[in-house]
Amino acid sequence: MDATADELAGVVDLFGGLTRAxxxxxxxxxxxxxxxxxxxxxxxxxAIDDAVESFALVRYDSGxxxxxxxxxxxxxxxxxxxxxxxxxxxxxxxxxILDVERRRLDREALGxxxxxxxxxxxxxxxxxxxxxxxxxxxxxxxxxxxxAPVDLxxxxxxxxxxxxx
Length: 165
Prior knowledge:
Number of domains: 2
CATH class of the largest domain: Mainly Alpha
Mean pLDDT: 88
Helix content: 55-70%
Largest sheet: 2 strands, antiparallel
Strand order of the largest sheet: 1-2
């Protein structure tokens, strides 16, 4: 089973958020339900990393002791601002199979996390003069603002200025 970024977002969205290990288990369950298929661990790792890089998934760890992301010490992966969550075939029953309660997330903290990630990615893109990544991050900045209560105007200006240089 090869999952797209939107399908990964769809699975984590069923729960509000999942740790990486929980997401891997959820996809393994869905694959098994699909005629006994299996998940290619390497491909799944790459798909998750790509989804995080593209902001289809956002790593969330509020740092709050009572946060659902710290129950097992691992951050949660949540559906991000560029995702169009889609539940893959045979995954609709995964919430009944996994022993994971739906998580409630602090949207403001999540927005701050996404904002910090955009700023970090923008710094890397500007430093390496990666014009394609800069253009992508300009678009992502609008997506993040629509998705969470944050303002990325200054970062967008910085990115636009870097394109003009």
